[in-house]
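Appendix B. Raw example, untouched.
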Amino acid sequence: MPAIPLTTKSFQETLEKPGIVLLDFWAAWCGPCRNFAPIFEKAADKHPDIVFGKVDTEAEGELAAAFEIRSIPTLMVFRDGVMLFAQPGALAGNVLEELIQKVREIDMDAVRKEIAAHEANQPEAAPSS
C-alpha cells in the first residue's frame, strides 16, 4: 500500500488507530527527502499492515511546528498512539527494515506501564494564580 499524505485534519485520526504508523516529514525542495522517498515507499509496499504517512512540512507547517521539526527528512514511529522513535535524517533501506522489526517486537504493555510509572513520579503542577 502506498504512503498516504497526512494533513492536520487526518493526522490525529491516523495516530489514534491501533497499530504501527511511520511518518516521513519532508518537503519537495529537500534533496535528502527526495532520496529517502523511494525507500519509504518500498517499505510501505512491503508492510501493508503498517500505516506509512507523509507530512509535507511546507503545506502542513502547523504539524511540523507541533512536532518541532527542525531538520528534514524526519522519521517518526508510533505504535498504538505512543511515539517510539523520532530522528532526523534519511535511513538506508536495511536500517528502516531493522527499525520496523524492532518496533514490531516491542511489548506495548510494558511500554504503557513504564509511561504510567513515569507520569506517577512527576510532581504535581502548581496551580496557577
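End of appendix B.
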